[in-house]
Amino acid sequence: MPEREDNHYDILIAGGGFAGSLTALILHNQGFKVCLVEKGQHPRFAIGESSTPIADMQLRDIAVKYNLPWLFDFSRYGSWQQSHPEIVCGLKRGFSFFKHYPGQNFTTDTDHVNELLVAASVDDIQSDTNWLRADFDAFLVDKVKEAGINYFDLTEIIAAKRETQWEFKCTRHDEPLTIHSAFLIDATGSGVLIDNLFGVKSSSDSFLTDSFAVFSHFNGIARWTELLKKAGIPTDDFPYDPDNSALHQILDEGWIWMLRFNDQRTSFGFALSGREKSLQGLKTQEIWDAMLKKYPGINQVLEDSVLAPVPGKIIQSGRLQRKVDSCFGTGWAVLPHTAGFVDPLFSSGIAHSLAGMQKLVTILGENFNNPEPLYVDLQQYEDSVFAELKLIDQLVAGCYLTMAHFKLFNAWSMLYFAATIAHEQRLLKKLPAGCFLGADDEYITNMVQEIYTDLLKIIDSPQLSDEDVTQFTNRVRERIKPLNTAGLLDVSLKNMYRHTAAEL
Ligand SMILES: Cc1cc2nc3c(=O)[nH]c(=O)nc-3n(C[C@H](O)[C@H](O)[C@H](O)COP(=O)(O)OP(=O)(O)OC[C@H]3O[C@@H](n4cnc5c(N)ncnc54)[C@H](O)[C@@H]3O)c2cc1C
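Above are the sequence and the flavin-adenine dinucleotide SMILES. Below is the predicted complex in structure-token form.
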């Protein structure tokens, strides 16, 4: 319940996802009087489940820096299981990719020509996790309430007026409610609120990537390794069991994520190119059916599964790419997932959110009452969020361009892994974090830009030759060399990378 009838706060945080809740907890521990406003009610279904080593490092950092010791346990599968087995998660040992061709069951060879496995952790205990967001986000909101932070669920902000402070007109359980605060943080995960309140628009125009998603949770999805074994495909030299990873099935027109939880559930979704003509104008179920018909290997995966009761239906997104025109204004700022999004490929969303959150709370902690430096810092924050979205966009766009040519996909995706390893190393050495994935690092941004240009030169050629692919791969190998501590593109490793994992 509100602690004062007039509801005055330093900071109102809109959006009670994991990012909004953690922001509230951090700012509360820094001495701010905050409240958290959530339009819906927990527990609720949410997508965005696969964590990464960078996200784990951020969780540990936040736990220590902001006196949230219980958060530390969620940064590794082992400690999560020990302290909170009741909060469902999954084991994520790395990123796995399997290439499927239309009309064919999955095949490969002893060189793993259609496979790519990149370990992100050395064992199950140290491993990343897939978060069942319904459980994890509800737990965080309970922590918010436990900390004595006022939490308003089923509450919508209808209008905002500012003189020296904000006056937010809200409805709560359909009753009117007024909340006053000096500052607003938008953690709602879309640009809708700041458009409604301040007329700040979002658009997809600047993105190279054009994709949408069709997804749900399923019970009883077949284990991929069992299907491989049944087909006589050896799995003995896999660095880990790919069912315990972010398992990507690569198609010609997009990809599938399979994120297994340690109960009966699996998050399964297609991320498909919005430029794919054969899918345009189809309804959700028609898209689903068309993809299963086209890829028999995928049909097999789903054959004995059923939709999980929550969400209980297949959900289709619009175009995933979006970016707001501004990340801040007088008396407000947005978290990264409100600022924009590219695509779930490479699971960058959670880590990007945590990185941006840390920057924003630092800025507010240092200059909350000092508008001159505050807005200079917020401008820098916006520049970095936009640079990060641009880099992620290029990395992901190159993947979509190469999905029909797995050798090219394999080579191109190494740019992401090289940039990630470099960023992990920076965090491990406690160097200034800079931009997420090195979006402020000229070597990385030039490398990605130049290789993207090279890719465009060959990708549309009617006869892509083996020589083109070899030259392209050599060029990537050469460019990632200064960052490549993991043997990426070492032919003798046969696409099975055991040692990319940062020392955790
Ligand atoms: C299809 C898809 C798959 C993804 N997969 C991954 C992945 O595997 N790994 C990864 O790292 N990232 C992934 N992401 C990104 C990930 O979802 C986000 O990074 C993450 O959800 C951001 O968390 P958040 O708390 O900022 O926002 P959200 O999770 O979006 O939470 C926002 C909260 O705000 C509430 N809200 C909305 N509007 C209002 C309002 N007006 N007022 C008050 N409350 C409001 C919502 O109800 C919700 O509870 C994926 C994204 C998509 C679209």
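The chain has a mean pLDDT of 96.
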